[in-house]
């Protein structure tokens, strides 16, 4: 391979001049004989054939070394013959097998050897063109010099003729007639020389076109062979690591830049092949990520897992505009969490966790070496379950692909939207739809399970906002608009799902209130008893109010370590509004109608006493609810009940 690179590099400096000097006499001879165009056409065919043979020879020379170097499993393939399908028939399969057996880095080395070989041939084509141009330039200079000499000779002849004419004694009219004849004779050589000049220019332009066609023929033949080499390993390329695929794409673009510069038009065929294989790779990555995510979600127990610093950096890079200052477990964050080159090595295929002790390989809630169970970005903590971490890794892998290979950037937003849509729909069925009772063996769906699902949605909503902003700035035109709209639709679905979780928590607390409301008939009877005294100012709340306050406190203790401040305000704003309205309705009913047998509310004293005890409960419930985040203005029904704030 080093020899091939040196051969490509030799096409500079003194060797260019030496080859041109060797070609120049031949070109001049063909020009003079009028056979240069025919010779260039023959050279075009010959160099196209030579390109195919040279690439074949380069592969035959390099491939055995790549197969044997440090690869014992592939050493046995060295004895198999090389050749194309047309030349060796069934043996073409053996060449395909050898190419498929190469490691990605070695296949890239093979492609570099082919590119170097083509570079030598393109150099030769350029040198032929330079020699032809030099020959025509020298001939043009000679023609110009000869024209100047003829012009000087004609001018001298005219001067001599004028001198002779002055010495003659002839009639003036005859002199004028003779002068006109002489002038007419001077214009004849110029007219006769116009046709050869046009023929000369046409011949020169034709030679230029044929020289360009020679380079184009070499580039065309090389492009076809390159596309065939990539096609043989199409299945292998769909499973490559990102770094290997990026290296392969870089090698392809390096070749295409040389070929396109040589022939002056894009390599449509090879570009299509590279783009198709990259798109297939992206489809495979996204499909594997969704498949693995589905399996993890089915087994998800919706408990926060330990988050290693490496995975925390990956997750944090999705949320913040910059990963600077990101930390997990209070430690230093990965300052380059959002950089594709740094993250590529940390990510494995299809969103798998890096090997060795990550939360995706352990059990939910395990204290993996003292690592915290949250990711902190800008002071906001996100507690992520195992499946959410896997989805975050997959999203990071997709973004890394767009960064490493810009040609994939327009396709990545739709893959991210599909991944998030899958996570949203499946998590909704498992948590709100209680599917986890069957798939993960949970006994019930608790408020904490709902909170963990809400945390995952909040995290991915923040990530989608970051991706949408990046997409809006990097993709212009209709494609960018479509991509951003798709991401925003998924974000809208997630927001709706999260609102349903909040509503579910509100419903749970409303149901708990109704359970404790079963005590109200008994309490009403006790408060309406004639022997009951009017409640004092420091009268404790009843068992009903105490139970409601306890339920609210339990919910707050369960959710506060998990949810963000905004989530807490959203949840408890709804809970306080619902409980306040229902509690006010129930307590007001105590003094207006009998709820149980033997309760006498006909006497005003009885009604006043019941209303006083109900006011004590209302005041206690209001005090508890108003202390919740987001519930500052949610207790109006209790205020309307006639309870003043303490």
| Parts with pLDDT < 50 across at least 5 consecutive residues | 1-11, 71-93, 173-193, 322-369
The overall pLDDT average reads 78
- Helix/strand-derived category reads mainly alpha
Using the CA coordinates, give the radius of gyration. Answer: 43 Å
Topology order in helix (H) and strand (E) letters: HHHHHHHHHHHHEEHHHHHHHHHH
Which terms would index this structure?
elongated; 646 residues; disordered N terminus; mainly alpha
Explain what you see.
Strand 1 and strand 2 form a beta hairpin. The longest helix is centred in the N-terminal third of the chain and has 63 residues, at 104-166. The protein has a two-stranded antiparallel sheet. Helices cover 72% and strands 1% of the residues. The chain has 22 helices and two strands. Helix 3 (36-68) runs antiparallel to helix 6 (104-166). The relative contact order is 0.06. With 646 residues, it is mainly α.
């Amino acid at each position: 391979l080093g020899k091939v690179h040196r051969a490509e590099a030799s096409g500079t400096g003194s060797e260019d001049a030496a080859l041109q000097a060797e070609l120049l006499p031949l070109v001049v001879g063909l020009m003079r004989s009028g056979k240069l165009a025919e010779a260039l056409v023959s050279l075009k065919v010959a160099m196209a054939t030579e390109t195919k043979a040279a690439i074949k020879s380069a592969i035959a020379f390099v491939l055995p070394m790549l197969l044997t170097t440090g690869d014992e499993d592939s050493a046995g393939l060295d004895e198999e013959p090389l050749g194309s399908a047309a030349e060796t028939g069934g043996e073409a399969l053996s060449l395909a097998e050898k190419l498929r057996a190469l490691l990605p880095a070695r296949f890239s080395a093979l492609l570099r050897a082919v590119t170097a070989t083509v570079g030598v041939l393109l150099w030769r084509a350029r040198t032929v063109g330079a020699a032809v141009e030099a020959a025509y330039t020298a001939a043009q200079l000679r023609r110009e010099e000869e024209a100047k000499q003829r012009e000087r000779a004609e001018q001298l002849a005219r001067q001599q003729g004028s001198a002779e004419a002055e010495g003659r004694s002839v009639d003036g009219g005859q002199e004028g007639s003779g002068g006109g004849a002489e002038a007419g004779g001077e214009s004849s050589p110029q007219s006769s020389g116009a046709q050869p000049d046009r023929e000369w220019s046409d011949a020169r332009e034709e030679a230029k076109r044929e020289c360009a066609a020679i380079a184009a023929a070499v580039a065309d033949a090389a492009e076809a062979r390159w596309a065939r080499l990539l096609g043989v390993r199409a299945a292998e390329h769909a499973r490559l690591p990102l770094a290997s695929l990026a290296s392969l794409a870089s090698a392809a673009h390096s070749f295409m830049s040389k070929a396109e510069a040589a022939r002056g038009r894009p390599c449509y065929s090879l570009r299509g092949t590279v783009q198709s294989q990259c798109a297939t790779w992206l489809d495979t990555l996204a499909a594997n990520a969704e498949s693995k995510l589905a399996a993890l979600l089915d087994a998800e127990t919706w408990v926060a897992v330990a988050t290693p610093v490496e995975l925390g950096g990956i997750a944090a890079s999705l949320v913040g505009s910059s990963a600077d200052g990101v930390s997990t477990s209070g430690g230093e964050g990965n300052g380059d969490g959002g950089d594709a080159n740094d993250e590529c090595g940390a990510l494995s295929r299809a969103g798998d966790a890096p090997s060795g002790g990550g939360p995706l390989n352990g059990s939910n809630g395990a204290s993996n070496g003292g690592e915290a169970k949250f990711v902190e970005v800008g002071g906001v903590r996100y507690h992520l379950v195992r499946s959410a971490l896997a989805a975050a890794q997959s999203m990071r892998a997709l973004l890394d692909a767009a960064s490493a290979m810009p040609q994939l950037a327009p396709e990545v937003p739709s893959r991210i939207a599909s991944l998030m849509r899958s996570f949203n729909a499946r998590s909704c069925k498992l948590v709100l739809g209680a599917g986890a009772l069957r798939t993960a063996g949970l006994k019930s769906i608790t408020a904490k399970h709902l909170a963990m699902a809400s945390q995952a949605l909040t995290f991915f909503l923040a990530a989608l906002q970051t991706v949408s902003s990046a997409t809006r700035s990097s993709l212009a035109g209709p494609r960018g608009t479509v991509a951003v709209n798709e991401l925003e639709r998924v974000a809208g679905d997630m927001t709706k799902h999260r609102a349903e979780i909040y509503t579910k928590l509100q419903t749970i607390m409303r149901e708990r209130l109704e359970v404790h409301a079963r005590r109200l008939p008994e309490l009403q009877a006790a408060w309406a008893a004639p022997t009951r005294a009017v409640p004092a100012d420091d009268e404790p709340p009843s068992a009903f109010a105490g139970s409601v306050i306890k339920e609210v406190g339990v919910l707050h203790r369960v959710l506060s370590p998990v949810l963000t401040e905004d989530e807490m305000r959203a949840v408890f704003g709804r809970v306080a509004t619902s409980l306040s309205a229902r509690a006010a309705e129930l307590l007001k009913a105590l003094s207006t109608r009998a709820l149980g047998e033997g309760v006498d509310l006909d006497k005003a004293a009885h009604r006043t006493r019941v209303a006083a005890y109900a006011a004590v409960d209302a005041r206690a419930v209001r005090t508890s609810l108003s202390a919740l985040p987001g519930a500052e203005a949610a207790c109006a029904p209790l205020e309307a009940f006639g309870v003043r704030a303490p």
